[in-house]
Every structure is written in C-alpha cells, then in structure tokens.
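Subgroup meeting minutes
Present: P.N., E.W., G.H.
Scribe: E.W.

1. P.N. recapped why we're keeping a running log of single-chain structure predictions: easier to compare across weeks, and new members can see raw inputs and outputs side by side.
2. G.H. added today's entry (179 aa).
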Amino acid sequence: MSSFQAKPSSSTSSFELEKNPELDIKIVLKSSDNSIHFVKKSVIAKSVTIKNLIDDGCADNGGIIPLQNVNKSTLLSVLHYLNIHAELSDEGSEIKVFDENFTKDFSFEKKCDLILAANYLDIKELLDLMNQKIADFIKNKQVEEVRKIFNIANDFTVEEEAAIRNENAWAFEDINKDT
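Output recorded in log:
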C-alpha cells in the first residue's frame, strides 16, 4: 500500500475540488500487479487519463481505477513525482532540483517504464522529463551502442550504412568513440 492515507470522501466527482484541500477527495488506483493506492485528486490532477476517467464517473462511489499498464513500483514513482510537484507548485527552482535528482538512481529499464507510464497516464511534464533523461543517456554514444541499448537489429547493408554515415558525417563528429 502506498504512503497516501485514505479518508472518507464526498460523493462529488467534480475536478474543481482540487483547489480546496479540505474537499480534496481520494482517488483509488489499482496497479497492474493489484496494488491499491489512495491518492488525492489534486495530486493526480496532472494525469489527463485519470482526469478523463474521473470526469466519466469511473471513480464515483469509491470506484477503483485500474491501471493495466503500470506496475506498483512504477506507480509509486509516478505518485512520488506528482506529490512533490503538487507540494512545490510555486517553487520553480526547487522543482528543477527535484527533477534533476528524481531519476538519479533509477536503472535504464526503470526510466523506460516511467516513460511508458507517463505516456499511458498522459502526464506531459513527466513524459518530457523522462524522454530528456533517456536522450541525455544516449547522447554521444555510437550507433552500435544505441542499437544494443534499445535491442535494435541493424537492417542496413554495409554499403547502405556507409552511405548514410557519409551523408550525415556531421552527426557523428561528437560521438564518444571510447565507450
């Protein structure tokens, strides 16, 4: 169970309540591995997917919103990100510091899972952050290395690849040949 505590909530599902913490109802989310999480509506507000499900009545009367494509570990990371962003909404510099350190100890696979979750939940800020983290990770890596990282087969002939490298020589100028 997540660190968020459940309290009785009003029966209304209007998203306008997010501005009033006293009326901030809890939403129940269920991860793909059946873990239940209670989260304030104002915290999950950046998820367009969840907002649409709430607006469609899927969270009325204590309804559980199933997240088929998000496991517990990834959901907890998403909720942590959203909770900190909700707390620091007026602290631009603190959010930047948090974002910079948010994925510091995450594996490449965990970062990819967060990209998929942010895309599925339609959380633009998190998706942009995670995409940038992956872009920074592969920056200046050789083509062969990037193929290996993403498990991409080389379907070019030697001649085709040489032609592409010649046409786009500028793109290979800052490649780290030592990695």
